[in-house]
Amino acid sequence: MDKNYTIRAMSQDDLTSVGELDALSFAEPWPMHSFAYELTTDYSICLVAVDLEEKVLGAIVVWVIVDEAHIATIAVNPNHLKRGIGSCLLAQALLVAAGRGAVSSMLEVRRHNLPALALYRRFGYHRVGIRRNYYKNDNEDALLLNLESINIEVLRNFFKTNCV
Ligand SMILES: CC(C)(COP(=O)(O)OP(=O)(O)OC[C@H]1O[C@@H](n2cnc3c(N)ncnc32)[C@H](O)[C@@H]1OP(=O)(O)O)[C@@H](O)C(=O)NCCC(=O)NCCS
């Protein structure tokens, strides 16, 4: 696997790039001030994947709510898909979340978002519910996915093998 990227904490300096990435990746991107806000809260984990020149290739925001890691958003630059970046962002965010007390994880995903569904299934998430007409721009349903138990050892091994 090509590993010419690293995962690190998101900073204020990344906000413009993260906003641009989000706009490229979603029909309903987050406003820039939402990412800025996430950087100020204790319960948010905000990470980026950057290349050797510090260009932002991917980003993830996870909320730790009591003992649950809720995946709020994850996106990888469309020119850098299927290089393992999404997996490494998710693995690292879950490890940080586990360090803060998360034991399980939950998220909503568009019903027809096959790349995202494949990513989440790879990590053991499974469908536990559906939110009808969840996405306002086109009324697509959201599937509610759950990872019942965050396995720290498995994630550490995955990260060591694939992301460092
Ligand atoms: C979902 C997303 C973050 C995945 O990022 P990525 O860096 O391409 O993912 P990875 O390279 O780590 O791939 C993880 C697994 O997902 C699967 N996968 C990824 N893209 C896929 C695609 N287009 N088709 C089928 N499977 C795919 C593969 O099985 C891969 O496992 P493998 O390495 O064993 O082949 C990326 O597609 C994206 O940014 N999409 C737009 C934003 C979005 O929809 N975010 C999710 C919101 S819920």
Describe the fold and architecture.
The chain is of the alpha+beta class. The chain is 32% helix and 31% strand. The chain starts with a strand and ends with a helix. It has five helices and seven strands. The chain is globular and about 40 Å long. The longest helix is centred in the middle third of the chain and has 15 residues. It has one domain: 3-Layer(aba) Sandwich (Aminopeptidase). A hairpin with a 2-residue loop joins strand 3 and strand 4. It has a seven-stranded mixed beta sheet. Coenzyme A binds next to strand 4, helix 3 and helix 4.
Keywords:
binds coenzyme A; alpha+beta; 5 helices; Aminopeptidase
What ligands are attached or bound here?
coenzyme A
Rg result: 15 Å
In total, how many beta strands? Answer: 7
CATH homologous superfamily caption: Gcn5-related N-acetyltransferase (GNAT)
Task: Provide the CATH architecture.
Answer: 3-Layer(aba) Sandwich
Can you tell me the number of structural domains? 1
The chain-level structural class is alpha+beta
Largest sheet: 7 strands, mixed
Task: Please render the helix and strand layout as text.
Elements: E1 5-9, H1 15-25, H2 32-38, E2 44-51, E3 56-65, E4 68-76, H3 85-99, E5 104-110, H4 114-122, E6 126-131, E7 142-147, H5 152-162
Parallel strand pairs: 4-5
Antiparallel strand pairs: 1-2, 2-3, 3-4, 5-7, 6-7
The structure holds coenzyme A (COA).
Coenzyme A binds at residues 25-26, 74-76, 81-87, 109, 113-116, 118-119, 122.
